[in-house]
Design a protein that fits this description.
This protein is an alpha/beta fold. The chain is built from seven helices and eleven strands.
């Protein structure tokens, strides 16, 4: 079985009990470990992370430990990063043994082609968004940011995250066939007729969506762990969205 999860936002300042919330995510991961072959994390697993060369930021101990246990058990872990967890460099891949992808990835799973991405960089974006995204990925800017003491950068990052949606923790309207990701997927299929995608799987929008486009293609948005505690499962024959209730 292959599992897909996104938008946990572990460590977010608006969570009433971040450690209890982390425990719930870990309970889910341990519940799927016996029958999980691959785990795909489609971004925003962490509300904020900056990976220093010699210092590990506090927090996420249970989460990282569980991922390491899964990797040691032979489970393939792929983390497709978004802007919140963009600053994963080499520590977590080496320590845990997972693959980190900045952007999108196309994978074949049991004969079906999957297009995977967090989704924050897809489609038409404002000039301001494109500028911020380029700054976040700029090596010089990253070096300058790392030179500032974390006592300043960590609170700033959490305030920025919590205020990015006007104080409302990630509630988005479900637009169905009018979803931007659905429209983007239709355009992508038209532009790549020789390698059609069977499943487009995204995070980012904090909605649960399973929308067919054409006869054999579906667009999936995984929801989140703020409102739904949701995830995706691919059993080799069908993809389904489920919720974790424990």
């Amino acid at each position: 079985m292959d599992y897909f999860i996104s938008d946990m936002h572990l460590g977010a300042s608006y969570l009433p009990d971040p450690i209890d919330y982390e425990r719930r995510v870990v309970r889910f991961l341990r519940s799927i470990t016996p029958h999980c072959r691959r785990l795909f994390i489609l971004g925003y697993a962490l509300d904020y992370w900056y990976e220093y060369r010699t210092v590990v930021p506090r927090g996420f101990t249970r989460f990282f430990g569980c991922l390491a246990e899964m990797a040691d058990a032979g489970i393939e872990i792929t983390w497709l990063i978004g802007n919140h967890d963009i600053w994963i460099f080499d520590y977590l891949p080496r320590e845990i043994g997972m693959k980190v992808v900045d952007g999108s990835e196309i994978v074949m799973l049991h004969g079906k082609r999957f297009f995977l991405a967090h989704g924050d960089g897809l489609g038409k974006r404002s000039r301001g968004f494109r500028f911020i995204r380029s700054v976040f990925r700029n090596k010089v800017c990253q070096w300058l940011f790392a030179s500032i003491h974390p006592r300043w950068t960590v609170p700033l990052a959490h305030r920025w995250s919590s205020s990015s949606r006007g104080g409302t923790p990630y509630v988005s309207p479900n637009l169905g066939a009018d979803e931007p990701f659905v429209k983007w997927a239709i355009e992508y299929q038209s532009a790549h007729p020789q390698e059609p995608i069977d499943y487009f799987v995204f995070g980012h929008r904090h909605i649960l969506l399973d929308e067919p486009i054409g006869d054999d293609t579906r667009v999936i948005v995984l929801g989140d762990w703020i409102n739904y505690f949701s995830y995706g499962v691919w059993d080799g024959k069908d993809f389904r969205l489920e919720k974790f209730n424990n």
